[in-house]
Amino acid sequence: MDSAADTWEPHLLEEDEFLREVQSFSFWFEAVEGYLGDRPLGHDPGLADGLDAAEREQLVTVLCNYCVGETAALEASSGLVRLASNNTSQIFMATQVADEARHVEVFRRRLGDLGVDDPDAAIDRHANPALLEFRRHLLAFVDAGDWDLAVFAQNVLLETMEDTVFRFHQATADPVTAQILEGVVADERRHLGFGENDLGRRLARDPQRRQRLARVRADLDPLVLGSFEASYQALGLRRDEYPELGRSYLDAVERLGLDS
Questions:
Q1: 50-67 pLDDT, tens digit each
Q2: How far is CA 132 from CA 70, 154, 168, 223, in A?
Q3: Is CATH 1.10.620.20 the right assignment for the domain spanning 13-31+47-255?
């Protein structure tokens, strides 16, 4: 006979109970255990990357910008723990802090594996200006205590951008980087789901919030799309080889009714 764990289906729960379950520490632990438990550096210890010197230098640039985005999310999500209006959202943000800290850790360790002695200096040297400006806006929303705008910028825009780039990169990356990105992508999907769910419910209760988010979306669009383009350039693609730029981002915006 199946155990309760085998037959448990969270989507059959009432909304409040569902949110308590999927935003809990136990749900988070089950989600991350499979790809963190035996990978202290984010990948199997014996895995080799097979990169030459030029490929390593290109990857350093890419990872430096990943560190910028993940550090911004770490700083913002830690501030959002204090801003959360209810316990379940507060707990989820606490799990996201742990996720983002882990992402920063594995990306910086990967930089060390690639021969970077001073990650901070390398990140400063390679950081894309559009991404730095996006980070400035995100942290300003957090500092202002504006939950809606901060969650929109972080858990919808930034997470969608990172999910799109990371999944594309994972498909073409060396074995070590691909395995690191596999775990990170799983986390990003969970963070994005929280953002869309939280904001979707708030917009349903108060449609006027949509106007504020639409204005912020218009301000941040150039930074988001500029960061997409810089990421694909850093991955060595020609413009005519770019995937459909920002399609996942635009889909997320449309799901919240912010496409006009």
A1: 889 999 999 999 999 999
A2: 12, 13, 22, 9
A3: yes
The identity of residue 179, as a single letter, is: Q
**Residue 194's Cα: distance from chain center in Å?**
12
Output the 3-class SS for 140-200.
HHHHCCCHHHHHHHHHHHHHHHHHHHHHHHHHHCCHHHHHHHHHHHHHHHHHHHHHHHHHH
CA 65/CA 81 separation, integer angstroms? 25
> What does the pLDDT average to over 41-50?
76
Closest to 64 measured CA to CA, from 135, 131, 10, 13: 131
Query: Which residue is it, tokens 């970077």?
Result: 116
Which sequence spans correspond to the domains of the chain? Answer: 13-31+47-255
C-alpha 91/C-alpha 77 separation (Å) is 11
Return the sign of the alpha-carbon dihedral for residues 101, 135, 147, 27.
Answer: negative
Q: Is 103 exposed, middle or buried (0-12, 13-18, 19+ CB in 10 A)?
A: buried
The reported pTM is: 0.84
Answer for the pair 91, 29: CB distance below 8 angstroms, yes or no.
no
Tell me how crowded residue 178 is: count the other CB atoms within 10 A of its CB. Answer: 16
pLDDT at residue 148, rounded to an integer: 95
